[in-house]
Amino acid sequence: MLKLKNVSFAYAEEPILKNISFKLDKGELLSVIGESGCGKSTLLKLIYGLLHTDGNIYWDEKELLGPNFNLVPGEDFIKYLAQDFDLMLPLSVADNIGKYLSNQFPQQKKNRIKELLEVVEMTDLADKKAKLLSGGQQQRVALARALAKKPELLLLDEPFSHIDHFRKNNLRRKVFAYLKEQNIACIVATHDSTDALSFADKTIVLKNAKIYATGHPEDLYKNPPNKYVASLFGDVNELSLQDLKPEEKSRKKVILYPQEIRLSNRKGIKVEVKESWFNGANWLISTMLKNKTIYFYHDASLIAGKMVNLKVSDELIASRLK
Ligand SMILES: Nc1ncnc2c1ncn2[C@@H]1O[C@H](COP(=O)(O)OP(=O)(O)OP(=O)(O)O)[C@@H](O)[C@H]1O
């Protein structure tokens, strides 16, 4: 088990992380989300042992002491995939993946490289030099290299950020399934809500140097404590109860995702259509309610200036009242 106790860090005066504490079981997958600059990468570097903290980090009974105590920073059983992939550019894809594998058993090494090439869908490019690869291909090689010596804990910083949409979904399913199958614990720092929602067992939200919210991704999504957390999962509306039900005098806030608001043929919240954006599955429509923008999804674009009625289920409003 990984255990962090009061982990704090500052590059200069300003604290980047303050008293971060959490636990992660073997084989568990944690996503760390939060706005850019909130300290996600710094947290991974602290755990890997590239930065020093006065707090405590343990793997089972062993305390991970960090760079002030280790001549070579980094822990053997942890692999860290940074945002800059750190590949050996003159070497081939296969040689990069095998870089940390022992040469003592050449056939085993060959088999392992072959297995990992399949996981990251790079078999056809095994002999190509890393310097000739695209950014997304280099990221896949770096991912395979991080997995090569089966870590007990894998730290991934935006692991699919350079990979095209077409390949990303399939690759992501494969990689996370592989981690589960091999019981490898993993922390993913990510901006991508699919990483955070679909694959993580739990999620930590960072803000103002602290753990701002934590929980099962589905709970955080369905019951976002506030607009900041909800907005990490996509577009979001923050309305008052009075906006939704004019007969109510309460100004309590209600967080709603665009897909939770529908067009109504009968009465509802009267809004003026401003813009429509096609996003593939449907259209995102922006509307104005007095001086507030409300976003919702619809299966067609709407003419700007048109007055329409919107509705939201009463149960949903009740469950989101803050
Ligand atoms: N080497 C450094 N020296 C000084 N400040 C740094 C250094 N690295 C990062 N920072 C600052 O620390 C803060 C946290 O950075 P970090 O990279 O951990 O954020 P992040 O959440 O991973 O951001 P992003 O989502 O954009 O990757 C930022 O304000 C950043 O400018």
UniProtKB/TrEMBL annotation:
It comes from the Bacteria. SUPFAM superfamilies: P-loop containing nucleoside triphosphate hydrolases. The keyword Nucleotide-binding applies. GO terms for molecular function: ATP binding; ATP hydrolysis activity. PROSITE patterns: ABC_TRANSPORTER_1, ABC_TRANSPORTER_2. Keywords: ATP-binding, Nucleotide-binding, Transport. Residues 2-233 form the ABC transporter domain. PANTHER family: SPERMIDINE/PUTRESCINE IMPORT ATP-BINDING PROTEIN POTA, SPERMIDINE_PUTRESCINE IMPORT ATP-BINDING PROTEIN POTA. This is ABC-type Fe3+/spermidine/putrescine transport systems, ATPase components. It comes from Salegentibacter echinorum.
